[in-house]
Description:
Elements: E1 4-8, H1 13-24, E2 30-33, H2 38-48, E3 55-58, E4 61-64, H3 66-74, H4 78-83
Parallel strand pairs: 1-2
Antiparallel strand pairs: 1-3, 3-4
Family: Belongs to the glutaredoxin family.
Protein name: Glutaredoxin
InterPro entries: GLR_AS (IPR011767), Glutaredoxin (IPR002109), Glutaredoxin_subgr (IPR014025), GRX_bact (IPR011900), Thioredoxin-like_sf (IPR036249)
Amino acid sequence: MAQVTIYTTRFCPFCVRAKQLLTSKGVAFDEIPVDGRNDLRSDLAKRSGQRTVPQIWIGETHVGGCDELYALERGAKLDALIAS
């Protein structure tokens, strides 16, 4: 199973939804909270080109945010990506 990493903030509803989807599928993930952490926000921006959360990686693949994660699920592509 691929390693899943998700950058989040505490009060982000999109972060909550993304984590709920992953949890409902039984997927363990590494959560990196960036609340009040400019150093982590800078790392996130360098890694993804984005400063918004959530930002999700499955293995080495940058999925993007919550909408992109749910699009993979709707397109029946999420399970295969996680399994790789």
